[in-house]
Amino acid sequence: MADVEPVEVVVAHHERATLRVGDVFLKIDIDQGRTDIEIEAMALAPIPTPQILWRTPPVLALAALPGTALGRLGEPSTSPSGAWAAAGAAVRKLHSAALPPWRGRSLDELAVELDVACAWLISNGILSADMVTRNRRIAEAALRPWAPVFTHGDLQVAHVFVAGDEITGVIDWSEAAPGDALYDLATLTLGHEERLGEVVAGYGTDVDLDVIRAWWSLRSLRGIRWLVEHGFDPNSPGCEGDVLRAGAMRD
Hints:
Layout: E1 7-12, E2 16-21, E3 24-29, H1 32-44, E4 52-56, E5 59-63, E6 68-69, H2 81-95, H3 107-123, H4 129-139, E7 149-151, E8 160-163, E9 166-170, E10 177-179, H5 181-189, H6 196-203, H7 209-229, H8 240-250
Antiparallel strand pairs: 1-2, 2-3, 3-5, 4-5, 6-8, 7-10, 8-9
Helix pairs in contact: 2-6, 3-4, 3-7, 4-7, 4-8, 5-7, 7-8
């Protein structure tokens, strides 16, 4: 049994699970529509993505990417400055590509989701009304018209893989859609505010930092309910709870 590869549970909840066996990732998703989007988005994206090995619903098998994740939410990133700048450049390349042929969330849908999220956080005593109100005020700056670009949609720092200063690939494309460029930049730097300047430098064009901060608050307000209901702790150091506390202090 010494040569048998162990099974590593990367992430698991009642909607999806990702397992790693050696150099193969097995993604199990009850919603095959998400998998359809992931496969098509990876084919369209002009940046490195994992190789698809096979698909047998509900399982998608992907080859592991070389390198390591750019960072982890809640942990200091040890990746060099050049890697963060390279991530910004890769995001800019994605945003310059042709739009994927499916729709993304509208402003009205996002506004409704924000309303529902804030009401749930207060009514369930998850966050104080003052913290929710302050971050809601910040978040509203993100709800403005934007020119849609090809967005990854869930560009968490753990989804970007690097080797030295080079991007080796980006994973987890099931939320890809036309959307706001600054949402991707905000997601990438969520909990890593100190790296924002490096990412923006690599991105190579002026961005509205206040809107990025607004997306930090909006994404965190919307995301906490999902985290709580799927058994994750949003108050872990450096995670969404800390992001909202920092936002309330800036307001």
